[in-house]
Batch of 3 targets.
Target 1
Amino acid sequence: MYRYDAYDHAILRQRVAQYRDQVRRWKTGELSDDEFRPLRLQNGLYIQRHAPMFRIAVPYGLLSSTQLRKLAEVARDYDRGYGHFTTRHNLQLNWPKVEDTPDILEKLADVEMHAIQTSGNCVRNVTTSHFAGIDPDEIADPRPFAELLREWSTFQPEFAFLPRKFKIAVSGSTRDRAVTLAHDIGLNIKKNAAGEIGFEVLVGGGLGRTPILAKVIEEFLPWQHLLTFVEAILRVYNSYGRRDNPYKARIKILVHALGAEQFRKEVLEEWANLKDGPSTVGTEELERIARHFTAPDYAALPARDERVDALKASNPAFARWVARNVHPHKQPGYAAVTISLKDPRQPPGDCTSEQMEAVADLADQFSFGELRVSHEQNLVLPDVPVSALPDVWEAAKAKGLSTPTVGLLTDLICCPGGDYCSLANAKSIPIAAAIQERFADLDYLFDIGDLDLNISGCMNACGHHHVGHIGILGVDKNGEEWYQVTLGGHTDGVKGRETALGKVIGPSFSAAEVPEVVETLVRTYVAQRHDDERFLDTFERLGLAPFKEAVYAGRRPAALNTSAARESTHA
Ligand code: HEM
Ligand code: SF4
């Protein structure tokens, strides 16, 4: 993984010292709340419903066991002993004291971590696939490119005050696991006929209040031009993006307003000034960065292991875990393992300090000391020998980290919602818990099969509800919490049908109704599915109608009408 050099370390130390002084001046009243606000935000500190919220970056989701142990220590010493892994490779602490945040950053700097650009209208954490470097489908490892973008964009003065926050995702596989279509810039690595590496460049995607999928503006950009081309895009956005209205400030609105073709023309015009200039990436520079991402020292192992096969045959719980939480690996004899953060006893994505330490131990013992954070809010051990799977399973089980549900309905994505977030219209964690409780039967869950359920507490869509097969969105109706349901969204990741936005099925529901609604949707699917058809495929074959009919059947028309009338205010 990328290791800091002396310059990186020095920059981080200076930054912590600067921030420490800013906090001090705020405490003594030398800085007003308004003056302190942008300074704290530039260091990842929000003020939330109950307490500050501190967002720590995990660049492209890659963590060492040492870093995870440090996160555990920080969560224990300065928070309530847990942290929350988000959909964008960050860890959020929900209860730190403002006064402690310089100390937290100092501890993080010891292990080459920080919170810079985790907030503010700048280029945020660059995200990628949690299987980067190990995916059998991989065209090229996206991490060196993500790191290039990180180095280039961190402290980039020209793009520190964009019209709005800016998110870039890079995918290196034929299957997109980084949801590139829902990012401001999505970069899909491709190989041309000559075997050279380049990027398909997508622009103007995003969820939130106005969900839009990104448009391709370049079919094949040679990798040498990555930074100059991204710079050209950002310049066009910086010049024309709307600063008058924060709700219309994202690049997706600009691309939509101009049209992708016109936007592309503007970018090409700007690029003419930058192409082949100093930001062009040289082979030496790429190789310098790529050396940080070489494969670990794999042993030559047989692809199968008899002990594992025998345990799978004799122990259904282990077989289930292998079926859902163990993933193929480029290297024979190895597998990637998802450490689930979806035990129903904890909010989705939450991880206690003790659990973080347990996962760090597992990484040291079985995965070359390395881990990943997935955008589905789980952790991944990327390089586990197949023969060690039973040991990993036992150890994960002991800590409540072996929930065997990856990709199933209860492996849901869920934002912190009204329990923490001051922007929320409704709570989302109790909704997640109620659904997880309703679908606790593993036999049933396995029978239902692949189903993504995503929950957001407001239209900002942090929980990615637009791209859930079933999406649940908290809406406010006259001060009460209601939930709107969408169907058919997905991030399938397969070329040609990577991502789609869900469709609203109709009037929203009370919190108490939601589990029953989900159950009805699932029952409708089970009754209608063809042999191996997934929920999503059945939905695409049948459309909204049968699901809608089943869910609203028996609801009183009056209630329906009132609800429908109110709905329009939330469009
Ligand atoms: C688990 C916690 C969180 C996660 C995973 C998360 C992640 C995200 C993601 C993925 C989006 C969608 C952006 C897009 O694709 O356009 C988003 C939007 C947004 N989030 Fe969060 N976020 C979290 C917490 C928060 C909190 C606590 C705040 C409040 C300070 C917040 C404020 C926003 C806003 C304002 C937007 C809309 C941005 C826009 O469309 O311009 N988020 N967040
Ligand atoms: S979706 Fe809304 S409620 Fe949920 S974390 Fe984002 S801003 Fe907060």
Target 2
Amino acid sequence: MSNAEAQVVQEEIDLGMANKVIDKYINMKGALMPVLQEVQDAYGYLPEPCIHLISERLNVYLSQIYGVLTFYAQFHLEPRGKYIVRVCMGTACHVKGAGRIGDTLSELLGIGHAETTEDLKFTVEHVACIGACGMAPVIMVNEATYGSMSVQKMNEIVEKYRAMD
Ligand code: FES
């Protein structure tokens, strides 16, 4: 994304949802984490203008907020896809060909680990064991788990989600 495009995206952010979340916590101690979480839930990620708003309204330094955001992997500073595809790269999955599954997914979507397609439909994440080793290799799409993955199955799953809204 170019700087000009980033600027446009920023200007389009409606701060209404963020203000509502902050209103709920405004006089509470320890409000920062729940506010960050709920604002992220509302937007799907934490847009920069929201972070500035949180800093001003909760009276917390920006540097402190960014410290929290970079420490916890659960926070995202970039827009994410509607479908988060997690490819397990844990040992059991790796032994059973997770690498090939990950490569196939990258070829199909044109993106790699931690990237999002331009249409904001898919985000790909390579993750450690997701606790379903008996079904290795495993992927997840949002909350749905798919085991015994093959290249063929990966194709079908991507097609299925592409066809969905
Ligand atoms: S290693 Fe993939 S689910 Fe455990």
Target 3
Amino acid sequence: MTGAAPGVADVPGGRLRALLERPATGTSGTPAAAESAEDERCDLCAEPVPEGHRHMLDVQQSSVLCTCGPCSLLFGQSTAGGRHYKLLPERRTSLEGFRIDGMLWARLRVPVGLAFFVRDGASGEVGVGYPSPLGVTRSAVGPEDWEELARGYPELAELADDVEALLVHRSDGADEHWIVPLDDCYRLAALVRTHWRGLSGGPEVREHIEAFFAGLAGPSPRSRTS
Ligand SMILES: [Zn+2]
Ligand SMILES: [Zn+2]
């Protein structure tokens, strides 16, 4: 009766997309802080969502939705209204000792030192995305290249289709490899897009990237509720 939900169904993923387009909030925040706008609402039912809420992938639209608790239970792994939803997992695992050979990296043709790899559940193909000042650029990874990259790392064979990524950070001498939920990749892309200056990105974006990876090693913003 009171304040009927607006037509949020028309703008799936609006919150995270807005995050990608939103200017910097000022102070150098953690990824979690960057998303803590007080007007954040569930993209499915329009109820306000707390900081540290779960996200869900609309598989067909490739859009990430902010999700309240009840909706994540209701739609977490379902097909509703012609759409296929998958709840994003929460684990973040650092792949210690993982290396990507320089020749293989060159073959992948990723022009920057940041990239994330995701397996498409429908086709089984692995794609690579990398953040840029213009957003996320994607290309396909040859099956033999992925095989070479993942050899000896069973964790990578177990990546959840569509919703989990191998995140690689090898810019500025870094050498980090993580299994993360897809929304982390979107947060990183938002940081790059927001803080990139000039041709090379500049010191500000590098600081934000460092803070992002330092934050991955810390406790998940959601874990405090468990
Ligand atoms: Zn909801
Ligand atoms: Zn959200």
